[in-house]
Each structure stands twice: as structure tokens, then as C-alpha cells.
Design a protein that fits this description.
80 residues, mainly alpha, globular
Length: 80
């Protein structure tokens, strides 16, 4: 992110946000967010298993997003 443009956006009342799916480098913050929100009864990472490798979770999330292997009653969705 360009810091100069970011500062100008804030002063003008505008904020640019990039929306994207989870990546390998998001592991620590996503796990922390999941744990923190779980304390409040909210599921941040659907179908997440704390003891699984992050790459396995990302692969499963991609499959579920495309509708592959969905449990009965679920529809495809994405974490953005």
C-alpha cells in the first residue's frame, strides 16, 4: 500500500480497502482472529480445525467456495 496515498485518502474522508481471499501469509492473523471471535461465540473461519495445517484449510476453503464437498444444507461461500 502506498503510504502517501493512504494518508491523503484518510484526510479526504476516503478509505480504499482491498478485499481478497485468505493467503498463506494470513495464517497467524486469521488463527488469532478465529480464536478471539470464538470467545464471543462467532465462527470466523468456517469448518476450521485448529490442529490442521494452514495449507489444508486453505485448500478445503477453496473447494467449499466452489461448492465441492459441501455438507447437506450448505451453499458455496467465500471468506473475503
Amino acid at each position: 500500500m502506498n503510504t502517501e496515498n493512504s494518508a491523503n485518502d484518510v484526510r479526504s474522508g476516503q478509505l480504499n480497502v482491498d478485499v481478497r481471499g485468505l493467503r498463506l501469509e494470513d495464517e497467524a492473523s486469521a488463527r488469532a482472529g478465529h480464536c478471539e471471535l470464538a470467545e464471543e461465540g462467532f465462527t470466523f473461519l468456517p469448518f476450521f480445525e485448529a490442529d490442521e495445517p494452514w495449507t489444508a484449510y486453505l485448500a478445503r476453503a477453496a473447494r467449499l467456495s466452489s461448492g465441492e464437498g459441501l455438507p447437506p444444507g450448505f451453499v458455496p461461500s467465500s471468506n473475503l
